[in-house]
């Protein structure tokens, strides 16, 4: 299976073309990303100062979970205190001040803007779990963090003294998608039990319509179109360093990963069905009987009729 990129490819390519090739040109471009995210890349003042703005419906929720501090840590002086109108975050980058040896790192960091914004609730949950772990008799009173990142779908994150629980609610509007989704999600559940190499992977739980115990108090709307996927992360999955960063990146794109592969599977099946239909048509064409009463003519043009 294909793993989707964590970064926005268009932002990455746009910045690389200017920093590596020194092509400082005016730009005014709107870019769409997964989960209803929109970017605006522009040079409103000069060609060398680029503004990258991000708009996302769940941004106010993320700021409530510490996103501002995460962005300030990652982007420093690039983070504007006055975001562009209609957007939630704006980075202002002076391309002339970027050293040649820093180009790759700068491009990577800016193209991960959405990822770093969504990292806030996960980092907060990991920090809470570490504090509970230090206590002899921890009193767990952590908040269930809700990120309504799509219109009818959400991510729920809650810390405990020995684990982090991450729950995705996902909607399948098409009947075919429901079938494919059930197969994919059940495989996530079964693979850990079946494959010895996956014993250290996060535990995965899957339910249709009925929300997990952690969400029962929210009185969520019951619907056959909604499924819930629960990931249980243990401390070995988010140890400080690269492992933690990779866990945050991968779990963020789970929903996009799932629906992307459902669409790929449907496209593959349609391709196979079309190929099979073409093969059947070739067989039928070869099996056409000759017309018995076809009119035949002699060399001079007269009609030739065979008499019995």
Unreliable residue stretches: none
Query: What radius of gyration results from the CA coordinates?
Result: 28 Å
Rounded mean pLDDT score: 87
For the termini, the CA-CA separation is: 68 Å
DSSP helical segment count: 8
Strand content: 15-25%
Global morphology: extended
What structural category arises from helix and sheet content?
alpha+beta
Order of helices and strands: HEEEHHEHHEEEHEEHHEE
Please outline the major beta sheet.
Answer: 5 strands, antiparallel
**What's the multimeric state?**
single chain
**Strand numbers in spatial order across the main sheet:** 5-6-7-9-8
Helix content: 25-40%
How many β-strand stretches? 11
Provide a descriptive summary of the structure in words.
The protein has 308 residues and is α+β, with helices and mostly antiparallel strands. It has helices at 9-19, 59-64, 67-75, 103-111, 113-134, 175-194, 242-252, 254-286, and strands spanning 28-32, 38-42, 49-55, 89-94, 145-150, 153-159, 164-171, 203-208, 226-233, 296-297, 303-304. The chain contains eight helices and eleven strands. The chain has a five-stranded antiparallel sheet with strand order 5-6-7-9-8. Strands 1-2-3-4 form a four-stranded antiparallel sheet, with no helix packed on it. It has a two-stranded antiparallel ribbon with strand order 10-11. Helix 1 runs antiparallel to helix 4 (103-111), helix 3 packs across helix 5 (113-134) and helix 6 (175-194) packs across helix 8 (254-286). It is extended. The protein starts with 8 loop residues before the first helix and ends with a strand. 25% of the residues are buried. The mean pLDDT is 87.
């Amino acid at each position: 299976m294909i793993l989707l990129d964590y970064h926005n490819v268009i932002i990455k390519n746009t910045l690389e073309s200017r920093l590596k090739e020194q092509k400082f040109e005016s730009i005014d471009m709107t870019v769409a990303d997964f989960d209803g995210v929109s970017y605006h890349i522009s040079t409103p003042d000069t060609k060398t100062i680029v503004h990258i703005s991000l708009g996302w419906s769940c941004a106010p929720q993320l700021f409530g979970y510490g996103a501002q501090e995460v962005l300030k840590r990652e982007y420093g002086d690039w983070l504007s205190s006055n975001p562009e109108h209609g957007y939630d975050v704006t980075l202002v980058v002076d391309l002339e001040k970027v050293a040649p040896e820093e180009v790759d790192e700068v491009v990577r960091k800016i193209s991960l803007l959405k990822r770093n914004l969504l990292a806030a609730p996960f980092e907060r949950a990991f920090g809470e779990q570490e504090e509970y772990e230090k206590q002899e008799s921890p009193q767990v009173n952590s908040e269930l963090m809700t990120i309504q990142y799509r219109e009818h779908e959400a991510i729920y994150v809650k810390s405990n003294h020995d684990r982090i629980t991450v729950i995705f609610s996902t909607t399948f509007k098409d009947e075919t998608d429901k079938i494919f989704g059930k197969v994919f999600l059940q495989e996530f559940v079964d693979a850990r039990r079946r494959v010895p190499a996956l014993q250290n992977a996060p535990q995965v739980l899957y339910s249709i319509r009925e929300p997990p115990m952690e969400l029962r108090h929210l009185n969520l709307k019951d619907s056959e179109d909604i499924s819930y996927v629960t990931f249980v992360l243990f401390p070995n999955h988010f140890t400080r360093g690269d492992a933690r960063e990779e866990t945050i990146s991968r779990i963020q794109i789970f929903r996009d990963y799932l629906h992307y592969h459902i669409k790929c599977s449907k496209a593959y099946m349609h391709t196979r069905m079309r190929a099979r239909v073409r093969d059947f048509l070739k067989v039928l064409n070869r099996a056409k009987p000759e017309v018995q009463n076809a009119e035949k003519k002699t060399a001079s043009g007269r009609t030739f009729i065979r008499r019995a």
